[in-house]
Design a protein that fits this description.
225 residues; alpha/beta; two-stranded antiparallel sheet; 5 helices
């Protein structure tokens, strides 16, 4: 039986189709989920994709956090289901308090779009076991409100507990504290990051295939569970 990975579409999502395609290329069964769904339709993992959910009219991810589907996502994430939030999805995870901190306007106040080098800091999460700690990867980055912020106590705890999953290399593109590009929860099943691994799953459409490991990692973990 194939691993079913759901991708939630909110009003304003842009990268849901890319995420569904990445799941398929990784060998999983992609399942499209709508923001008004209350059922996750028996999926094994969830991806919250990038975009501008609800137009980001209040705060990025702040309205999406109250979509009907998120009540079930939050419940299942706390029960151990793997959940990946990419860009706007990362913002939704922070607004949902599944991850600490918040995402704010880029410190230079400009939208940034570029191929971004990252260092893998944690290779033990549900989404990173196909990488090695210290490995450098390149995936696209595109955001206007991608600056990760948290108070010093939270940042120190993330560092001490090994919950920083990715760090920016080659210059900080948005002013994120301590060059943090992605983090995980204490259990390691929920991961959020600003860069877009779903845009780096084959050389035809991305700069590398470095992003495919996110999806193969989750599939292998679920198969082995």
């Amino acid at each position: 039986m194939s691993t079913r990975i759901g991708v939630v579409t909110f009003p304003g999502s842009l990268d849901d189709g890319d995420a569904l395609r990445a799941v398929r290329l990784a060998g999983g069964e992609p399942v499209a989920l709508w923001h008004r769904d209350t059922s996750l339709h028996q999926v094994d993992a969830i991806v919250l994709p990038g975009g501008f959910s609800y137009g980001d009219y209040l705060r990025c991810g702040a309205i999406a956090r109250f979509s009907p589907v998120m009540a079930t996502v939050i419940e299942q994430a706390r029960a151990g289901m793997p959940v990946l939030g990419i860009c706007n999805g990362f913002q939704v995870l922070c607004e949902s308090h599944l991850l600490p901190g918040a995402l704010t306007r880029n410190d230079h106040l400009h939208f940034v779009c570029r191929d971004q080098r990252l260092r893998v800091e944690n290779d033990t999460t549900a989404w990173t076991t196909d990488y090695s700690a210290g490995q450098e990867i390149t995936v696209p980055l595109k955001n206007g409100e991608g600056g990760y912020v948290a108070d010093e106590r939270t940042l120190d705890a993330l560092e001490a507990e090994g919950r920083v999953v990715f760090r920016y290399l080659g210059g900080n593109p948005n002013g994120s504290r301590r060059d943090i590009a992605g983090i995980t929860n204490e259990a390691g099943n929920v991961v959020g990051l600003m860069p877009h691994p779903e845009h780096a799953v084959e050389t035809l459409t991305g700069p590398t295939t470095d992003g495919l490991g996110f999806f193969t990692s989750a599939i292998k973990k679920l198969v082995d569970a």
